[in-house]
Design a protein that fits this description.
Radius of gyration of chain A: 15 Å
CATH class of the largest domain in chain B: Alpha Beta
CATH architecture of chain A: Beta Barrel
CATH class of chain A: Mainly Beta
Largest interface: A-B, 24 and 27 residues
Structural class of chain A: mainly beta
CATH superfamily of the largest domain in chain B: Histidine kinase-like ATPase, C-terminal domain
Number of helices of chain A: 2
CATH superfamily of chain A: CheA-289, Domain 4
Largest sheet of chain B: 6 strands, mixed
CATH topology of the largest domain in chain B: Heat Shock Protein 90
Oligomer: heterodimer
Shape of chain A: globular
Helix content of chain A: under 10%
Number of domains of chain B: 5
CATH topology of chain A: OB fold (Dihydrolipoamide Acetyltransferase, E2P)
Number of domains of chain A: 1
Number of strands of chain B: 22
Shape of chain B: flat
Chain lengths: 154, 698
């Protein structure tokens, strides 16, 4: 689960900072394939509730997840700054998550990252594996594996 | 030693040799005296031995070596072919296949020594030795190799080779740039089967010490194994010649390597006269060979004879299936782009209304369609590769079941997409076993019914439109629908009253239900109830279907229908609410417009009565969880689809039209629970439409 942040102190990693709900989340830039504007999503019947559907990304079919629905937040409100972040995991290929806004790219040294052990709290799953300190701001670092893992207990 | 890059070739060729051995041994069983067949078997076993040896698979080499020995005796008429021997030989083949399977999955042959088989083989040899002392071919050959080592100067072929201008220049340049220039001629063992592999290893060893400047014959020819038992290289190096020669001799199956320091000038001088000739390679080889003394001359015809034994090099190339997949993907992209152009040009307000533009679009359409067909053809392989193992299987079954039977096959050259062929083997095997075990009656019953003593099983394959049909039939007992019905009632699948109303087809369909086995006794061959339902699901996974025809007492016929291709299909685009869906054209029967008042209810299911046929209705909007319709329209558009011989009517909102679509997978993330959606496709305008798998709606 805690992959990617167990690097030696001083090793820096880049994160894309996005806004979901009122919080800031960081996504390891190594997993980011692309960032695209919001576009029409084709609904796939009978799929998991948090999968909005699929899009055509330059001839490739990519499933799109509503990270808000996945985290149990209220539904997405699509605005001009809404973006789809296309992520690529080694084994399973690409998928996209919808975020409210893309803020910036930050570089965090490993010593600025605090590993979290937040387990399942209040019946809600945890999708982060660390918290990064960028000056005054706190950035929750998304754990992509836990996002795509099927929750067996729910 | 790195031979891994030859592993795939080894696996492919071993497979081919096993198949040819299997075919030959079958022939041998019916014609034990057939000399050609015996020779063919000997050659195949010999090649297998050599290949296994080269790759370092010792156990496999041992087994094939003993097989070869037995055939050596058969060939020289010292042993007679007996049915006992045939059985052992088949077991040997199975063992070799076992090794091959291990190699495929782990790159290692495993640890099974098959001592029992080797002992059995040696027993045949012992019989032969009783008749006459066994010849010892192996030591003889070694002596020959020893003799060759003895002669000195004449083996330095690099002194006499005719070099081309460019080679001479290369040598001169290399000499000028410093280091010593050596000419080296390497001799490969006559028995070596992967000569190119050996040459490759030699090059690798040499390149650790220096640089190879000129290859003779050319590198390409060496890689294609177009050389006799020797080849020559010119090397620049700072190392001592001896060290290089030692490194070369360290490679196995290299008989000898001779070399000395040379001057580019001296070599070039000798070649002066021949310069003008464009392709001197082949005659040059012959010439140098003539100059070598007697033992070498003997060796040459031997090597020639061996190559003659191999099938003539066909005009084919082996291509990795992944490369073909990539090619197919690119063709798919092209078709999507073409569809997009078509959709732009057909828009009424578009600027592209002029005649030439539309003509060019049509031209493009024709090209992409032909291109698609061509790529598909490249991916097609004859089903022969799968069905060729069946005669052997039936022979074994015949023994096991103690029933006489024969397999007749037609249409082995029928072609199917590679991915389909790879997966059709198991289902067909199930069907054949089924026919052999359940279908054919015992000998007594056949005699009683006045049928020929030998039961026949037929496997016919042929192409029909966009489908390939494979029929497996037998002249056996046929399916006893009464007892199937009884069993279905017993298992609580239907009530006795319902059962009365079922027609023959419905009853036969019970056979395809999971764990529904009719076998009274569970045998090794079939009857574990994992047969027909697996056959059915495997075939359906390939986009095909299976049907049964049967007459009690006369036999039954299983008809397997498979699509020619999996990636690109013709589809009807329909609209449900605002969403677009594709339905494979192949499964569509007709399209009807009916007033809503025509809908009737049978057992609270909606049906329509269409020209005397009662057809159940499926509301696509409900299946697909679409927004419910506000008002029921006055008339319904119903697409009648067929699965096997059942029909169903799909209610859609609107028809868009027919289109060639490229099937794309939804990927691994989306969990499409009931499999109604089999994939997605990208339309001309970039929009995504989902493909409805009609088979799941029945």
């Amino acid at each position: 689960m805690e992959t990617g942040i167990e690097t030696a102190a001083g090793v820096a990693k880049q994160y894309i900072v996005v806004e979901i709900g009122n919080e800031q989340y960081g996504i390891d830039i190594g997993y980011v394939d692309n960032i695209v504007r919001m576009q029409e999503i084709t609904r796939v019947p009978k799929s998991q509730i948090y999968f909005k559907g699929i899009i055509n990304l330059r001839g490739e079919i990519v499933p799109i997840m509503s990270i808000r629905t996945r985290m149990g937040l209220e539904d997405d409100v699509f605005t001009n700054s809404t973006r789809i972040i296309i992520l690529k995991l080694e084994q399973q290929g690409k998928f996209g998550i919808i975020v409210d806004e893309v803020r910036e790219v930050v570089t965090l040294n490993a010593d600025k990252v605090e590993r979290t052990n937040m387990s399942v709290k209040e019946g809600r799953e945890s999708f982060i594996n660390g918290i990064g300190k960028n000056g005054e701001d706190l950035i929750s670092l998304l754990d992509l594996n836990s996002i795509i893992e099927e929750d067996d207990n729910v | 030693m790195d031979v891994s890059q030859y592993l795939e070739i080894f696996i492919d060729e071993t497979g081919e040799h096993i198949q040819s051995l299997s075919d030959c041994i079958m022939t041998l069983e019916s014609e034990p005296e057939n000399k050609d067949t015996i020779n063919e078997i000997f050659r195949s076993a010999h090649s297998l031995k050599g290949m296994a040896g080269t790759m370092g698979f010792k156990r496999m080499q041992h087994l094939t070596h003993d097989m070869e020995n037995v055939f050596q005796e058969v060939r020289s008429d010292k042993v007679k072919v007996t049915s006992e021997m045939i059985d052992i030989l088949f077991q040997c083949l199975d063992a070799i296949e076992g090794y091959l399977e291990n190699i495929k999955s782990t790159s290692d042959e495993g640890t099974e020594d098959n001592e029992a088989l080797i002992a059995a083989l040696n027993q045949f040899l012992a019989q032969a030795e009783g008749a006459a002392p066994a010849p010892a071919p192996a030591p003889e050959k070694k002596e020959e190799a020893g003799e060759k080592k003895a002669d000195g100067e004449d083996k330095k072929k690099f002194l006499t080779i005719q070099l081309s201008d460019s080679d001479k220049d290369a040598l001169k340049n290399a000499e000028e740039s410093g280091g010593k220039l050596y000419g080296i001629t390497v001799y490969v063992s006559e028995e070596c089967l992967l000569k190119a592999a050996r040459a490759f290893l030699v090059f690798k060893a040499v390149e650790e010490k220096g640089q190879i400047v000129v290859y003779y014959p050319a590198l390409q020819e060496i890689e294609d194994e177009q050389f006799g038992t020797d080849f020559t290289i010119f090397v620049t190096s700072d190392e001592e010649l001896n060290k290089i020669l030692e490194a070369i001799k360290g490679v196995s199956e290299i008989v000898d390597a001779v070399g000395e320091e040379v001057k580019a000038e001296a070599l070039a001088g000798g070649a002066g006269e021949e310069e003008g000739e464009a392709a001197p390679d082949v005659p040059a080889v012959a010439e140098t060979k003539k100059e070598t003394p007697a033992p070498k001359d003997n060796a040459k015809p031997a090597a020639k004879a061996k190559t003659a034994g191999k099938p003539v090099a066909s005009r084919t190339v082996r291509v990795d299936i992944e490369k073909l997949d990539a090619l197919m993907n690119q063709v798919s992209e092209l078709i999507i782009a073409k569809n997009s152009l078509v959709s732009i040009s057909s828009q009424e307000e578009s600027d592209f209304q002029n005649q030439t533009f539309r003509e060019q679009i049509e031209y493009l359409e024709r090209i992409t369609t032909t291109l698609h067909e061509s790529v598909m053809k490249v991916r097609m392989v004859p089903i022969e590769s799968v069905v060729s193992k069946f005669p052997r299987m039936i022979r074994d079954l015949s023994r096991q079941l103690n029933k006489k039977m024969e397999l007749h096959m037609t249409g082995e050259d029928t072609e199917l997409d590679r991915t389909v062929v790879d997966q059709i083997g198991d289902p067909l095997q199930h069907l054949l076993r089924n026919s052999a075990d359940h279908g054919l009656e015992s000998a007594e019953l056949r005699a009683e019914r006045g049928k020929p003593e030998v039961g026949s099983i037929n496997l016919n394959a042929y192409q029909e439109g966009n489908n390939v049909i494979i029929e497996v039939s037998d002249d056996g007992n046929g399916i006893d629908t009464e007892s199937v019905k009884k069993k279905a009632i017993e298992r609580g699948l239907v009530t006795p009253e319902q059962a009365e109303k079922l027609n023959q087809k419905d009853i036969i369909n019970f056979l395809f239900m999971p764990s529904f086995s009719m076998a009274k006794k569970i045998t090794d061959i079939s009857g574990r109830g994992v047969g027909l339902d697996v056959v059915k699901s495997n075939i359906e996974a390939l986009g095909g279907d299976v049907e049964v025809d049967s007459k009690l007492g006369e036999g039954s016929k299983f008809t397997v229908r498979l699509p020619l291709t999996l990636a690109i299909i013709q589809a009807l685009m329909v609209e449900v609410r605002d969403e677009k869906y594709a339905i494979a054209l192949g499964s569509i029967e007709t399209i009807e417009d009916l007033p809503t008042s025509e809908i009737r209810f049978v057992e609270s299911r909606e049906v329509i009565n269409l020209r005397g046929k009662v057809i159940p209705i499926v509301r696509l909007d409900k299946v697909l969880d679409s927004v419910p319709a506000e008002v029921e329209p006055e008339s319904l558009t119903i697409v009648i689809v067929r699965k096997g011989d059942r029909l169903a009517g799909l209610v859609v909102d609107d028809l868009i039209g027919q289109q060639e679509i490229v099937i794309k997978s939804l990927g691994k993330y989306i969990n499409n629970n009931n499999k109604t959606i089999s994939g997605a496709t990208i339309l001309g305008d970039g929009e995504v439409a989902l493909i409805v798998d009609v088979n799941t709606l029945f």
